[in-house]
Amino acid sequence: MAKSPNKLEVLKLGNQLCFPLYACAKEVIKIYRKPLAKIGLTYTQYIVMVILWEFGEMSEKELGEKIYLDSGTLTPVLKKLEKFGFVKRQRMTEDERFVKITLTDNGVKLREKASNIPQALEGNIYLSYDEMITLYNLLNKALEGINERKTQ
Question: How many domains is the chain built from?
C-alpha cells in the first residue's frame, strides 16, 4: 500500500486495504470449512454457537450485535440451528418483537465436539504467535473505531 498515492493510484488493488482483509477472511473461513463439516456447522453457525457457549441465553438482537449480523442474515442461521436441535428460539410474551435464544442440551454437548476447531488454523497461517496476537489486536482496534464512528 503506497503512502500517499495520487488520485488514480488509489484505485490500484495493491493500494486497497479492504482487499487483503476480505481475501484473508475468506481464506481463513475456508480453512475452517473441513473441521466444521465434521460437526455439521457452517462458519456463521459456528460463530453463533461460540457466542452462546460463552455468554449463554440472549436476545436475537444482542446476538446480532455481537457478531455484526442483521436480523435478515441471522434469523435463517438461527432457524437452521433450531432445526438441528442446538438452539431454541422463543418470542417474548411481553414484547413479541424480541426473540430469546437459548442453547438446548444438544447445543451444550456440541461444545465439546467443537473444542478442536480453533486448532484448524495451526500451521495454516504463516504468522508467528506474536504476529497473530498483534493482528488480532489491530483488527479489534479497527472494529472498535468503526463502531465508535457509527454511534456518533
Answer: 2
Closest-CA residue to 45 (of 127, 94, 130, 103): 103
All residues at 6 or more sequence positions from 21 whose CB lies less than 8 Å from its CB, including other chains: none
Q: What is the CATH number of the domain that holds 91?
A: 1.10.10.10
Report the side by side order of strands in the sheet with 99-103: 58-59, 99-103, 87-91
Residue 10 is assigned to a structural domain of this protein: no
> Do 73 and 128 sit in the same domain of this protein?
no
pLDDT band at 147, cuts 50/70/90? confident
d(CA 135, CA 21): 11
Output the CA angle 53-57-58, nearest 5 degrees: 115
Task: Supply the pTM of this predicted model.
Answer: 0.87
Residue 51 buriedness (CB in 10 A; 0-12 / 13-18 / 19+): middle
Pair (95, 75) in one structural domain: yes
